[in-house]
Automatic annotation (TrEMBL):
It comes from the Bacteria. Keywords: Oxidoreductase. Residues 20-437 form the Aldehyde dehydrogenase domain. It comes from Rheinheimera maricola. This is Aldehyde dehydrogenase (NADP(+)). The keyword Oxidoreductase applies.
Length: 501
């Protein structure tokens, strides 16, 4: 049952407002659920409860935190039918996508639980009392949680990057209470995930206030929460414009805090002549699927594709894929409008050609896929081509040779991914390009599409700005927990064995 309330301090509270409804983008119609709007009272309660919870939760054992995370995953699975049905209604994403994302969300939670049960890898150095000219004390480098973490749920991953997603899971694993600001595009899905976390917290006897969910459509509330001194770190996935607004607010705090933002990426993809000559049809199919999947609403969708000059066969193959694609419903009308506006801006650029456009009407949340083409020189001259268009569109950029390709790579902004399709013989000659791409991305890929992120210890999901606000950290995988921990050196303390450590 959807209550439309906030979850604060272990209790559901707040009065749903008739004007705050959920929305079905596929039907362009309001859903029957209404939601509360947070204000000053909720701000005070959220921060007070999270602060009180931190005083207890930071001392909860790693094994107990692992049990909590496992319990959340189990509770989510038990609610699978309702969560999937609700997510499909609120997002227009396919049921298979919703089921897959729920599985990924549960796997993330269990990954962090497994890591918590592994032996700690703190660095310890024994005392050297006889060392000359000065003795060395015993030293041990550990990690301690930062404190309450504010998580902004993402629009395009209603489960894996939202209420019970990777940011929440890694913060809870670190020993930090979490306050989640639900995304306005899927508040009912958010509540169902919050119900799972609340039930898990009760069953594992976690402190009240270890997790909270709040609904707020007004940016002023989010800004006030972000500036509150009780908040010690923020995780955000969204637009560069809003993310940088939040970053500036954090810089203005009396005590600035870490802001882990994922703000935008075009995920450039490079394909070489010999590879294309051998695999053109397969490459075109894979590229179209990657761009069009989920109506193009993946943060790792390839939006810039650098192709050799004269790749007429590839263009024909891609024009067929994009021209036959049907218009689809994006997550919100606002996202759809931004996509249409971005495509229109490209069409108004004389150096950019529209090669293909999908079928169907565009209105409200519905948009048509689009395939554009331009030249290397135009890419260098028109800054609009370096601006992300979030949705089912991509731009082919023709290059003359590998020398020009490497030069183009130097102009790229920070990216989540960069991909190279080349034969093994070509790859051996392209080390300079690969070394340049290492400067610009967080994940360098060979001969695979960038969409699809493996949740594991070896994954890096981040990159130089604007892909992320801090390229040293990942938002996916077991190392994501490091965002919410800080190093602490213990000097001259005895360990459990009675020795100095």
């Amino acid at each position: 049952m959807i209550t439309g309330q906030h979850y604060i301090g272990g209790h559901w509270c707040g009065q749903p407002e008739a004007s705050n409804t959920s929305f079905n983008p596929a039907q362009n119609a309001a859903l029957p659920w209404c939601f509360a709007e947070a204000g000053e009272a909720e701000l005070h309660s959220l921060t007070e409860q999270a602060t009180a919870a931190f005083a207890l939760y930071r001392y909860v054992t790693a094994a107990a935190r692992a049990g909590f995370l496992d319990a959340i995953a189990t509770e989510l699975e038990q609610r699978q039918a309702e969560i999937v049905s609700t997510m499909v209604q609120e997002t227009a994403l396919a049921p298979a996508r919703a089921q897959s994302e729920l599985g990924r969300t549960c796997n993330q939670l269990r990954l962090f639980a497994t890591e918590l049960r592994a032996p700690a890898n703190d660095c310890s150095l024994p005392a050297l009392p006889e060392r000359q000219p000065l003795p060395r004390p015993a030293l041990r480098l550990g990690k301690v949680p930062l404190g309450p973490v504010l998580v902004f749920a993402a629009s395009n991953f209603p489960l894996a990057f939202s209420v019970a997603g990777g940011d929440t899971a890694s913060a809870l694993a670190a020993g930090c209470p979490v306050i989640v600001k639900a995304h306005n595009a899927h508040p009912a899905t958010s509540e169902l995930a919050a119900q799972a976390i609340a039930s898990a917290a009760d069953k594992t006897a976690m402190p009240a206030g270890v997790f909270s969910l709040v609904h707020a459509r007004q940016h002023a509330f989010s800004e006030a929460l972000l500036r509150h001194p009780a908040i010690k770190a923020v995780a955000f996935t969204g637009s560069e414009q809003l993310g940088m607004h939040f970053q500036r607010l954090i810089w203005q705090r009396p005590q600035p805090i870490p802001f882990f933002g994922e703000l935008g990426s075009q995920n450039p993809l490079f394909v070489t002549p010999d590879y294309l000559a051998q695999h053109s049809e397969h490459f075109a199919t894979q590229l179209a699927q990657s761009v069009l999947n989920g109506c193009g609403q993946f943060c790792t969708r390839p939006a810039l594709v650098f192709v050799p000059k004269g790749a007429a066969v590839l263009q024909s193959q891609l024009k067929l894929h994009f021209g036959q694609a049907q218009a689809g419903a994006m997550l919100t009308a606002k996202i759809a409008k931004h996509y249409r506006d971005g495509c229109q801006a490209l069409r108004q650029c004389a150096a950019v050609a529209l090669l293909a456009e999908g079928q169907g009407e565009e209105s409200a949340c519905y948009t048509r896929p689009r395939l554009f083409a331009t030249t290397a020189n135009a890419f260098l001259q028109h800054g609009i081509l370096q601006q992300e268009i979030f949705g089912p569109a991509t731009v082919l950029i023709e290059y003359a040779d590998t020398t020009q390709l490497q030069m183009l790579a130097t102009t790229l902004q920070g990216q989540l991914t960069a991909t190279l399709y080349a034969t093994e013989q070509e790859l051996a000659k392209m080390q300079a390009l690969l070394q340049e791409l290492e400067v610009h991305c967080g994940r360098l890929i060979y001969a695979q599409m960038p969409t699809g992120v493996e949740v594991c210890a070896a994954m890096q999901h981040g990159g130089p700005f604007p892909a992320a606000t801090d390229s040293r950290y990942t938002a996916v995988g077991s190392r994501a927990v490091d965002r919410f921990l800080r190093p602490l050196c213990y000097q001259n303390f005895p360990n459990l064995n009675g020795d100095k450590a």
